[in-house]
Automatic annotation (TrEMBL):
Highest taxon of source: Bacteria
Enzyme class name: hydrolase
Active-site residues annotated for this sequence: 42, 122
Residue interval(s) of motif HXTX 1: 42-45
Keyword terms, alphabetized: Hydrolase, Ligase
Domain Phosphoesterase HXTX, first and last residues per copy: 10-86, 97-172
Motif (HXTX 2): 122-125
NCBIfam families xrefs: 2_5_ligase
Family: Belongs to the 2H phosphoesterase superfamily. ThpR family.
Reactions that this protein is recorded to catalyse: a 3'-end 2',3'-cyclophospho-ribonucleotide-RNA + H2O = a 3'-end 2'-phospho-ribonucleotide-RNA + H(+)
Keyword Ligase: yes
Protein name as it appears in the record: RNA 2',3'-cyclic phosphodiesterase
Amino acid sequence: MRLFVAVNPPPLAKLELTDAAAPLRRLPGAGGLRWTEPAGWHLTLAFLGEVPADEVPALEHALARVAGEHPAHRLRLAGGGTFGQRALWAGVEGDVRDLRELAAAVQHALGATDEERGFHPHLTLARAGTTRRRGPGGPADLRAMAGALREFRGSEWPAGRIQLMRSETGYGPARYTAVEGWPLGT
């Protein structure tokens, strides 16, 4: 199973971001991007990759322990940015320090620490397509799109749960399903 650990924003946060990002889909080059689906929007705390099914119970035990040791916190989706010309993302504000500490604890407990990239809380909105997928108007200007999100500030929401998620890739967008979840601070 291809697994990751995430915090999932509530429906209202996703709806607000959907509304804010809708005009971006009409900009030149936007048709050549691979847009992510709001149903799959999440904040990745740790990516685990392929994990044998018999190792999942140990992961679940470790995640339950970490969740109990960290308090719930308050977040909001806000602003935007890019990873070069590869990806467009929405940012996160609020108790980001707590979110970073939670991500570090999850990564440490699962042996998934990625010190090369570090933890940058974000929600991926779109990825650059191949040159064959580019729409009319040439490639999308991801920096301009991120700039259009600069003033976006969604409603604050309680981040009180982490989830072990399964990622299924193949034709079309990735599909994410919750394997298990744990409340924070219990």
